[in-house]
Amino acid sequence: MIATSFSDKNLKDMFLAGGKRRDDAWKFIYQNWRPQYMINIKKKGGNDDQVDEIFSDVAINFENRVLNNDLLEVENYQGYFTKCIYFAWLNFIKAKNIHIEISDDLNIHDNEPNQLMSAEYTELAEAVDQLISLLNQRCKDILKLFSQGFSMKEISQKLDLKDEIKAKKEKYECQNKIKLFLKSNPKLENQIKQMWYAG
Q1: 90, 156, 157, 163: which is deepest, by most CB within 10 A?
Q2: Collapsing DSSP states into helix, strand and coil, what is residue 41?
Q3: What digits encode the pLDDT tens for the residues 38-59?
Q4: pTM for the complete prediction?
């Protein structure tokens, strides 16, 4: 029988142990954390099938980050995992062109159960909007294509740039804008690192 409660340290030790202990950790996470992160998703019109589509990618990345000690600054694994699931779901429905109503009344659990995160989410959303607004359309196109795995040569051809050297130069300038902005906003930088469970 799976325990009704495991600490973050317990879960990390179980991941490290592997085998049945690792399986038990994931059974615990699935059974005990899922009801919490599904509350917010269902509130926005999402469903279990959509979450099942993205769960494995989030889970793999989460476990790797735990094992690589990348989450030392995260006070609560459940809160972090809940955010990862939520933002991965948002990306999923965006990619599928599924329309939902996004408001700022999120109830994502973080350091304390049942604590509303609306203020934090709104602040993050506004900062990300500000970050995106720094980029012109060309920058957005270049970075989008680059994130999709296109080579610089392919990007230069798709965007009618002179050559791949020009594409590289523009990509560097776009990325530099983002880096400079994040350097002056360390809190946002940390939030984005945590949000992109994934990078």
Answers
A1: 156
A2: helix
A3: 988 888 888 989 898 889 888 9
A4: 0.53
